[in-house]
Amino acid sequence: MIEEHPDDDYWTPWKKLAEALIRESIGKGFNRYFRAGISMHHFVFSTLKERGIRDEHCVTVVIHHDTNEMRVAYSKGHLDFNAPTIERTLPVESASPIFRQLLKQLWIDTMPDPVPEDIAKFLDSDSLAP
Q1: Residues 6+ apart with CB under 8 A from 38
Q2: Given CA atoms 76, 82, 85, 87 in this order, what sign does their dihedral have?
Q3: What does the pLDDT read at residue 125?
Q4: What is the DSSP string of 67-117?
Q5: How far apart are the first and last CA of the chain?
Q6: pLDDT confidence of 107, banded at 50, 70, 90?
Q7: Which pLDDT does position 25 carry in this prediction?
Q8: Is 46 helix (H, G, I), strand (E, B) or coil?
Q9: Would residue 18 count as lying in a domain?
Q10: Which of 70, 76, 77 is nearest to 98 (CA)?
C-alpha cells in the first residue's frame, strides 16, 4: 500500500514515516495484537478483528503533519468525523513514546484482558504531557 503513493514533496516524507512506523510496530510485536490500516493519509490502529471503523470504536491515529512533525491522536471513531480525546502534534523523533502510550490506552479501553506481557514493556513510556 505505501509504495503505491507517488514520489513527490508531500508523499515521499509520508512514505518514509510510514515505513519506519510499520517496521517499529512489527519489530515490537504490535502486529500480533493491533490491526493497522491506512485511511487516506492516516495510519489507523485498532483492536478490531474486522475492517471498518464505526463511531463506537476507539482508535489510535498517526498522521504525517509536515516534513518534521507527526500528529498522534486517540479517538472514538474516525478522526474526520469525531474530535480526538487526546491529540499531540510533535517532532517526528519525539512521537514514538506518545504513539506507544496511546496504543496502551487503546488496549485498556477495548480489551478485557491485561496488556500482553510481551508488548507491555514497549507500551510503557513517558506521560502524555506536552
Answers
A1: 1, 2, 18, 44
A2: positive
A3: 56
A4: TTEEEEEEEES-TTTS--SEEEEEEGGGHHHHHHHHHHHHHHHH-SSPPPH
A5: 32
A6: very high
A7: 84
A8: strand
A9: yes
A10: 70
Residue 59 lies in a domain: yes
Domain presence at residue 99: yes
Residue located via cell numbers 506481557: 117
55 forms beta bridges with: none
**Which residues share a beta bridge with 52?**
none
Asked if residue 71 is part of any domain, the answer here is yes
Domain count, the chain: 1
Residue 128 confidence (pLDDT):
40
Q: Residues 35-93: pLDDT tens digits?
A: 887 776 777 888 877 766 655 556 777 777 666 788 888 888 777 777 888 888 888 77
